[in-house]
Amino acid sequence: MNALEIKDLDFAYESGKNVLSGINITVEEGEFVCLLGRNGSGKSTLARLINGLLAPTGGSVSVFGMDSSDKKNLFEIRKRAGMVFQNPDNQMVASIVEDDLAFGPENVGVKREEIGERISYALAAVGMEEFRHSTPSRLSGGQKQRIAIAGVLALKPDILILDESTAMLDPKGRGEVMKVVKDLNKNGMTIVSITHYMDEAVDCDRAVVLSEGKIVMQGAPREVFSRAEELARYGLNVPKAAYIAQKLRENGLPIADDIYEGEALEKALCGLFQKG
Ligand SMILES: Nc1ncnc2c1ncn2[C@@H]1O[C@H](COP(=O)(O)OP(=O)(O)O)[C@@H](O)[C@H]1O
Ligand SMILES: [Mg+2]
Questions:
Q1: Nearest ligand to residue 42 Cα
Q2: The domain spanning residue 22 has which CATH number?
Q3: What's the pTM value of the predicted model, to 2 decimals?
Q4: What is the pLDDT of residues 229-242, one digit of tens each?
Q5: Cα of 210 to ligand 2 centre, how many Å?
């Protein structure tokens, strides 16, 4: 069964014009999909539609076969599709990490004995075991966001949706969070990561680019990154090396189309000129 199936989805807020139009995305279990797009392209709206905070104006969204516009499914969908947001401070409810992580499971009626186990599992998954009794406000941004992820993991979701979850972090914090997300995916977690940092999409299975509420590009990251000028048109910060590689290609240099980061480009160029 697909983790996520979005079919011919349209969405408009109130009586406004469509913010999303004709969206089709299928995410298989275990896949790591990145959703890219400039501010206002509709990414957060799509995330809210996935976990049933919003209902489609047209078309459908289903999570593990459950239609999100059927209210009966919402409880189960929200349990299975865990959301992590941008600001970790807004996602903390308690003054001790352990209590914060207990909050979600308590709310859905998990038994007391099991809650402790879930907290241990969630902290281990984000590499934060030694912070079980810490105060969240004392943690760094990256650590806070890892605790926010642990809070979602304590609900045992099957798919994790991250909406710009690294946007407020420094490079170190971003690296920490990305590593946790990649490790979770290696262990089978389905991931939908919304970001406008192109380098975060380099290792995903599939990148989907949204512009003005429509899917404008979709493919393996190497395919998407090789279309540097097109990406720039959609307002995305193309990795500089991808842009240069594309220019060199257009000018007849044999640069492979899967080169989009600095080191690989340097190697390719060295190879070329040493030969000549
Ligand atoms: N609650 C809302 N009511 C009306 N319009 C909204 C609301 N939230 C977002 N929008 C509009 O929907 C469009 C897409 O926004 P959003 O999904 O937040 O994009 P992104 O997450 O890619 O920045 C924007 O034009 C935005 O102004
Ligand atoms: Mg957003």
A1: 1
A2: 3.40.50.300
A3: 0.89
A4: 899 899 997 777 87
A5: 12
